[in-house]
Specification:
The chain folds into two domains: 290 residues, 3-Layer(bba) Sandwich (FAD/NAD(P)-binding domain); 92 residues. 26% of the residues lie in helices and 20% in strands. Strands 1, 2, 3, 4, 5, 6 and 17 form a seven-stranded mixed sheet that branches. A four-stranded antiparallel sheet has the order 10-11-9-12, covered by helices on one side. It has a two-stranded antiparallel sheet with strand order 7-14. Strand 5 and strand 6 form a beta hairpin. Helix 1 packs parallel to helix 3, helix 1 packs parallel to helix 8 and helix 8 packs across helix 9. It is globular. It binds flavin-adenine dinucleotide. Flavin-adenine dinucleotide binds next to helix 1, strand 4, strand 13 and helix 8.
Length: 428
């Protein structure tokens, strides 16, 4: 049945902001905090009851390496560093300089995994609340972006499903950090899902945590593809095991089926741990993620599309806003495929600002895993430290654009670099 209904409704407005950030995951929190610290009146909208996105609601961790390919020098500083230092002070993170691979913190995976940052998911929620509050960001949890109103190539207002009903919010500038490019898609920006050839996304995984494992007895990489990463707490591990294929994060039916299938997989993963993984014979499930982990959804078409070649050759873009060195971690997209890291990355590669500027919309920035990039290229920078660096860059750019009264594509690179460097970002 392909029937349509027309729905008209007047909705009340929640006000006007300089910057509205949609999505409070690793990129969204950094975008909002950076925009607010630079003087923008900022609203952060998140559909779940917590900030942190995949890092909290989907129990994804550790924060992947923020070092170059060989693990010799850090490439992401800024807000990422501030947040993990704040967690480490409370014994809720192990700083990357104190971890190495292969080890219990990397499930004994060697390549690309030197200097990961294990974090406690609940303390991360607390710390992110504090960062938002201290920066003066207004946070709306339990509020979902559903649509936007556009005029003359710009978004004038977004429509939010608040708990009290539909509401609108206007802003000078919007930042899409939904991890699905929901805002860009609704604004008419060209997007595509998954890989360019057949639209298949990387698989999803329902993550969970176990405690009561014996660290000393866990001494080798477990049977593939079980991966277990020690958290900052003794005997406590994040489990990243089964995969659900073809889960479309922007489709309710697809996600309902995928999440239910993934729930059953958790029991199977737990059995493998108990019966086949030394050190986990008495492990207990302490928590299961409330949200299915989604590695890939939409990609936007932006002013520049980052390519696999750019990443493997280590192109240093003049308008770079982040450096990174993690490998192209593309999980098999179907049951029949195998292997993750197929193309070698450069020691250091960079992400250009233009990849965050969408086509067809003059007051929108996009940050995080959905920026304009080939699917396989995104497989490299999609992880959390880089998402945070991109979010911080988007927040700084948004504040400059609002202050100057111009569109984000007119932000001077020197000014953006100057602010980012002053705030701890690593660009050289
Ligand atoms: C199973 C799995 C394992 C992974 N392993 C690692 C790892 O070990 N280390 C690592 O660093 N990275 C890992 N990653 C990758 C990493 O988690 C993500 O790529 C990263 O979180 C991307 O950040 P983001 O801000 O772009 O998006 P997300 O983390 O997806 O955040 C998006 C946020 O937007 C919110 N949102 C979405 N739609 C709307 C809407 N319409 N309205 C309001 N809010 C909305 C969501 O609730 C969420 O909070 C893994 C990912 C998965 C799925």
């Amino acid at each position: 049945m392909n029937q349509q209904v027309i729905y008209h409704k007047e909705v009340s407005t929640l006000g006007h902001y300089d910057v509205v950030v949609l999505g409070g995951g690793p990129s969204g929190i950094c975008a909002a905090v950076e925009a607010a610290r630079n003087g923008a009146k900022t609203l952060l909208v998140e559909e779940n009851g917590m900030l942190g996105g995949m890092a909290t609601s989907a129990l994804v961790g550790p924060f992947m390496t923020n070092y170059d390919r060989e693990g010799n020098r850090p490439l992401v500083g800024g807000l990422y560093r501030e947040i993990i230092e704040c967690l480490a002070e409370r014994s809720a993170a192990i700083l990357p300089e104190y971890t190495d691979s292969p080890s219990i913190h990397t499930s004994f995976i060697g390549r690309y995994h030197r200097h990961v940052t294990p974090v406690d998911a609940f303390m991360l929620q607390i710390v992110l609340d504090e960062f938002a509050e201290q920066a003066g960001v207004e946070v709306l949890l339990y509020t979902r972006f559903v649509d936007c109103l556009c005029e003359n190539g710009k978004i004038s207002s977004v429509i939010l499903a608040a708990l009290e009903g539909l509401r609108s919010v206007s802003a000078d500038l919007f930042i899409d950090c939904t991890g699905k490019a929901d805002v860009a898609f609704a604004a008419g920006v060209p997007t595509w899902k998954g890989d360019e050839e057949n639209g298949i996304p990387q698989p999803g995984t329902l993550m969970f945590e176990v405690d009561n494992a014996v660290d000393e007895e866990f001494t080798a990489r477990p049977k593939q593809p079980v991966k277990v990463y020690r958290t900052p707490s003794k005997g406590c591990y994040r489990v990243n095991h089964h995969r659900v294929f073809d889960a479309d994060a922007a489709d309710s039916r697809s996600m309902s089926n995928a999440h239910r299938a993934a729930r059953k997989q958790v029991l199977e993963s737990y059995r493998v741990l108990l019966e086949e993984t030394p050190g986990f014979e008495n492990a207990r499930i302490s928590q299961v993620a409330s949200v299915l982990g989604v590695r890939e959804s939409r990609h936007i078409k932006g002013k520049y599309t980052l390519t696999v070649q750019d990443i493997s050759q280590g192109v240093s873009f003049e308008d770079r806003v982040a450096l990174f060195g993690y490998g192209m971690d593309v999980h098999p997209r179907t049951k029949e495929m195998s292997g993750n890291f197929k193309v070698e990355v450069a020691e250091v590669y960079s992400i250009p600002y233009r990849s965050m500027l969408p086509e067809n919309c003059d007051n929108l920035l996009v940050a995080g895993k959905t920026i304009s990039a080939e699917s396989q290229a995104a497989g490299a920078f999609r992880v959390m430290p880089c998402a945070m660096a991109l979010g911080q860059a988007a927040g700084a750019a948004a504040a400059i654009a609002v202050k100057g009264g111009f569109a984000p594509d007119k932000v001077p690179t020197e000014e953006l670099h100057c602010i980012l460097r002053a705030h701890g970002a690593i660009l050289d």
